[in-house]
Amino acid sequence: MLAISVDHIHSHRVFAASMGTLPYPLLSDWHKETAKAYKVFNKKGETAVRSVFIVDKKGIITYMNTSFKADKKSDYEAVFEELKKLGTNP
Questions:
Q1: Residue 62 CA to its chain's centroid (Å)
Q2: Three-state helix/strand/coil letters over 43-57
Q3: Keyword set for this entry (predicted)?
Q4: How far apart are alpha carbons 49 and 4 in whole angstroms?
Q5: What whole-number distance in Å separates Cα of residue 31 and Cα of residue 17?
Q6: 19 neighbors 13 (Cβ within 8 angstroms)
C-alpha cells in the first residue's frame, strides 16, 4: 500500500509524525504527474481529489473511488472488500 499526495515531502513528515507511525509509505507527487495521469487533479485548487485506487499485481486498476470520504465507514468497507477479492489481507 502506498499513499500519494501532491503535498511536499516536508508536509508528509509532519503528518506522519502527528499520526505516530504509519504502516505504509507516503509519496510526494510534487509535480502532480500521478494525479494528472489518474485524472484526479483539480486544476482550480492545484490539488488532487481524495481518491483510492487498487492496482493488482499486473498493473490493472481493479477498484477506484474518486470521491473517497475519510469519515465514511462504507468507503473503507468497499476498499477492504476489494482487497479480500484480490487475496490481500487488509
A1: 14
A2: CCCCEECCCEEEECC
A3: Disulfide bond
A4: 11
A5: 23
A6: no
Nearest CA-CA partner of 32 in 11, 48, 50, 44: 48
**CA–CA separation, 53 vs 40, rounded Å?**
11
The structure's pTM equals 0.79
Distance CA 64, CA 62 (A): 7
What cell does 19 get? 499520526
- Alpha-carbon span 39 to 55, nearest angstrom: 15
**Measured between alpha carbons, how far is 82 from 87 in angstroms, rounded to an integer?**
9
Q: How far apart are CA 38 and CA 72, in angstroms?
A: 22
Q: Cell 498493473 identifies what position?
A: 59
pLDDT tens by residue, the chain, 90 residues = 888 999 988 888 888 888 887 788 889 999 999 999 999 999 898 899 999 999 988 999 999 999 999 889 999 999 999 989 888 766
Cβ contacts of 36 within 8 Å, gap of 6 or more: none
